[in-house]
Amino acid sequence: LFPDQIKKFIEIFSKLPSIGPRQATRLAFYFISIGKNNLEEISNAVENLKNIQICSNCFFIHSNQDNLCNICSDKNRRKDLVMIVEKETDLISVERTKKFNGRDLVLGEMAKGGILDSVQKLRIGQLKNFIQKTCPEPAKGTHGAAEEIIIATNLTTYGDLNALVIRKELSDFSKKFSRLGRGIPTGGEIEFADEETLEQAIERRS
Amino acid sequence: LFPDQIKKFIEIFSKLPSIGPRQATRLAFYFISIGKNNLEEISNAVENLKNIQICSNCFFIHSNQDNLCNICSDKNRRKDLVMIVEKETDLISVERTKKFNGRDLVLGEMAKGGILDSVQKLRIGQLKNFIQKTCPEPAKGTHGAAEEIIIATNLTTYGDLNALVIRKELSDFSKKFSRLGRGIPTGGEIEFADEETLEQAIERRS
Fold this sequence. Notes:
The structure is a homodimer of 206-residue chains. Chain A has 206 residues and is an alpha/beta fold. Chain A has 7 helices and 6 strands, in the order αααβββαβαβαβα. Helix content of chain A is 42%, strand content 10%. In chain A, strands 4-3-5-6 form a 4-stranded parallel sheet. Chain A has a two-stranded antiparallel sheet with strand order 1-2. In chain A, a hairpin with a 6-residue loop joins β1 and β2. The radius of gyration of chain A is 22 Å and the shape is globular. The mean pLDDT of chain A is 91. At the A-B interface, α1, α2, α3, β2 and α4 of A face α1, α2, α3, β2 and α4 of B.
């Protein structure tokens, strides 16, 4: 009953993250209903993403001529302060705060077992190279070390475990390691905070 | 921080039905991560939908050379038995049962107020034309009438109201009007049926 074009569309879109066959079918009929010009605008928006590059340094996305993203090519940002995030969207949230003036490493989402896959090992290797190249040699060591690495994995049990794994991997490459602060979200009511959050908020009172 | 291509993608995809800005952002990064060839396959799948036609008779989709869909061009299907559905996906569900051998009208989703918009009025007008052309003249009337029109809107309060509106619109054009059967779904347990469904199931016992 379905023309081939729709079958193909549904087959492809059903496999996209958080789109199932039902939503893919609905999208197909929506796309058909909006007319050829609007449809072309949408397919162009997809196709134009192929011009996006990945930064050879921090693995964040960019569309610059050289191999570096806007953050890595910004000379005003500290090189010896690094934030490691799992997802690009995490980095974007951090950048929106304008409170971080270091550089980043986009690691990719880690498996729940706290194991680094081959891509992630490569990226951590790249960070080690970068630190060796750009940071001054520490008192004790044979290679340079960053002042601080903030390991910004989620503040969940799995995130904590993953942070430990990353820290172990990089232990020689930074003088200090940190995690994002824990506590009650701004605007949050104490009555509704869960026990663990409240416990952390008391310990980290300021 | 976002390159223009990503901004544009998120802007466009955020507006699609049941995709918000967060899912659009996630999709953008997913598309970037899959490589140029896979990305092209996806944009082609979208673009190829422009070859889909709408049947000039029942407004279902097709990719045939002439103006008619597979159902309307099937000579073995009854012309005097019509099912009116709101959505293409409703029609597809009906066709999958292989229990319906008439023709259809895809009306488009009706507003909750039970008001037909201009497109829907046009489509009902087209059905009237078709019935006049293809159905034998009834005993009493000045124009042809179908044997039966099944008004397959949802079996909800709004769906029932919409069915009444459609029926009023077509009252001269069919000898009989019907709705889909109500009752306990196959596999359903009586204990868990809501009161209204059970009531309907008792009334319509067979």
